[in-house]
Write a structure and sequence with these properties.
The chain is an alpha+beta fold. Helix content is 16%, strand content 49%.
Length: 106
């Protein structure tokens, strides 16, 4: 019975350890901010993308194998990693000329 009680006490700590690091990315005036986002190597990340424009934008990265449409005035989560060190480019497919960025993994 004592082991069961100890296990119940440890469950919240185990759950918190498994939660990914959360980073934010904003789309405004068809541009990503920050344009360069840093994340630690070997870590799973929850990237929360907030689109402050009234029109949708598509977060796309061939290097990260991710593609997701974020509706206007909405936010969405994209899970990344764990990744090896390097630079991973991404674009806003609907506004490729202005919506560009890179994730730097260190």
């Amino acid at each position: 019975m004592k082991r069961f009680a100890l296990a119940l006490l440890l469950l919240p700590a185990i759950g918190m350890a498994a939660d990914p690091l959360e980073l934010g990315l904003t789309i405004k005036d068809h541009q990503f901010s920050p344009a360069e986002l840093k994340m630690p190597a070997g870590t799973k990340v929850k990237l929360v993308v907030s689109n402050l424009d009234s029109t949708p934008e598509e977060f796309e990265s061939h290097q990260l194998n991710r593609e997701k449409v974020i509706a206007g005035n909405a936010k969405s989560a994209i899970y990344l990693g764990p990744l090896t060190p390097g630079r991973y480019a991404f674009i806003g497919e609907f506004h490729e000329n202005t919506a560009r960025g890179v994730i730097v993994v260190e």
